[in-house]
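Journal club side-thread
Mid-discussion, someone asked how the predicted structure for our own chain would compare to the paper's figures. Pasting it here so we can look after the session.
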Amino acid sequence: MRKPFVAANWKMNLTVEGARSLVYAMSARLREIPQVEKVLLPPYPSLLAVHALLEGSDLGLGAQNMHWEDKGAFTGEVSPLMVKELCTYVLIGHSERRTLFGETDETVNRRLRAAEKAALTPILCVGETLQQYEAGQTPDVVARQIKLGLAALGVEFASRVVVAYEPVWAIGTGKAATGEDASRVVSAIIRPAVAELFGAETSGRVRVIYGGSVGASNAAEFFAFPDIDGALVGGASLKADEFVAIVQAAGKS
């Protein structure tokens, strides 16, 4: 059985004090849902403060990105060793990083290999743009991102990777894919691509979650499909009541 997984991507939102307030508003209720693995992904400046608040709880902490080198002349970057001091998880390959900051399948793979070396649990984001979706290129794009992103990883580590399917056309637009559409991509594209690299057993162990305009009103639609193991939540994760409701829905799935 794969444990449900819900992550809160706060993106470039909240000051340190705002991050503390949000954790205070929802942490007690989230701890009452132990059947779901819950991860908060604050901006870098808030990691230390949030880490202190989560200590001793079952709430996980992750970074929104990291460089693949341990140290060096990379002004503005954060290394795996820095992330590991505070975090257990790291988000890699988010579409905003790919489209706005030029990250590629190759650099995503370098980050994943660095996560393996640092014993961090990565959340790998994959997904197609609206143009690719309308052109019927979803299978090629998503399978390529999986195969190139996960290339050269160890089998045991690959089974720990959490894959987040995020159709780019649904992120921040209010236009979510349907649960049926998302499940079809997971079962017909993502899991077979993982199986091609690491075998069917590993493919069955990998958790695949959905992201893209997920809210309390539609989360249960995705969780009703057994191939979808949770959600990567953006804007709704900045609202305590809504994020708690999403985690509760995952717990009931």
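Post-session note: The CA atoms of residues 138 and 216 lie 26 Å apart.
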